């Protein structure tokens, strides 16, 4: 079996204290999975990956000289932005598309996908965050990049971009403020999704550790080509650089999650 890396590491200046993540950067599958019984066209859709996020992350990483971790497998295989006990970790049906390669699925194959793809990706994220913390001597600022569809079930989504978060506002408030300040885009705050998701990437690596963070969503039609990626890299780059220069965004400060107490913190309550 040919080696398949479930992640890609992009090097950067770790001493700056900034980390970029792209959970759903790619729509790839190892050869032995074929196309999971799906037509090739499905892998050009949002259900397979976050359209536009791979080139946007690469552009931002280069512009900011920031290390980045990219997921190299389709979320149809297993979703790295879900906890290991999340029932949507391996989807049997995604936006109306039945995934034959995922149903039925044995417990052995479920564990195989966790061990080959999901866990190595998160180990790479943990290691990158730890390396940046050690090199900078402070808590990193972690930015996760995603994209969302222009329409959903016939509804035209008005937002150009959005910031998703749970209960730690430190990076979110200045980020939303700066995105809105240009006055030419509609910015969602926990829209079109709520950012409180137990076990997801931000929960696992940032909320539980008290690390400042934010998840940025960009509408897919706006970054579907190189011109759009350039426009959004030029918009986001200076904002992220400004946030990264804020000392208050490099301190450990654990906030309770809206999803409930952390494991081992059963008495923790929302303030």
From TrEMBL:
SUPFAM superfamilies: Zn-dependent exopeptidases. Pfam families: FGase. This is N-formylglutamate amidohydrolase.
